[in-house]
Amino acid sequence: MQLLQGASDDILTVASSTLCNLLLEFSPSKEPILESGAVDLLCGLTRCKEPALRLNGIWALMNMAFQAEQKIKSQILNNLGTDQIFRLLSDPEVDVLMKTLGLLRNLLSTKPHIDHIMGLHGNQIMQ
Q1: Where in the cell is it found (predicted)?
Q2: Which of 119, 74, 127 is nearest to 99 (CA)?
Q3: Mind spelling out the 3-state secondary structure of the chain?
Q4: Distances from the Cα of 22 to the Cαs of 4, 30, 37, 83, in angstroms?
Q5: Which of 72, 92, 106, 117 could anchor a disulfide with 68, C-beta 3.0 to 4.6 Å?
Q6: Where are the domains of the chain?
Q7: Contacts of 1 (CB under 8 A, 6+ apart)
């Protein structure tokens, strides 16, 4: 994560899009990435002017929060902050808004709740 500090927007966009996939629940890379400070980096990306960086930051946080331990969920909430969550919910980019709603779902729901929601509305959520 230290290598990405101060990187150009182009490099951050590619790296953060990769992190979205590496932070999925079943990824063996998830724990080492978390331990290297990914939450701080990704929360910072949600504050970027560039829409692609905001999207990748919130998307990776959403994936990270899926079926995560409460400790990780609390870390995301504390680092992101409620003011930033509300800013993201008002983002002009629809994709950022949708991933923010997905993050909230993952932060506030358990696996049975998420499975039920995805069963009912999965097609709309995954678009």
Answers
A1: Cytoplasm; Nucleus
A2: 127
A3: CHHHCCCCHHHHHHHHHHHHHHCCCCCCCHHHHHHCCHHHHHHHHCCCCCHHHHHHHHHHHHHHHCCCCHHHHHHHHHHHCHHHHHHHHCCCCHHHHHHHHHHHHHHHCCHHHHHHHHHHHHHHHCC
A4: 16, 6, 14, 27
A5: 72
A6: 2-125
A7: 33, 36, 37, 38, 40, 41
d(CA 9, CA 7): 7
User: Does 2-125 carry CATH code 1.25.10.10?
Assistant: yes
CA–CA distance, 29 with 19 (Å, rounded to integer): 9
Given the structure tokens 């919130």, which residue do they identify? 58
| Per-residue pLDDT tens digits for 11-52 | 778 878 888 888 888 888 888 888 888 999 999 999 999 999
pTM of the model: 0.82
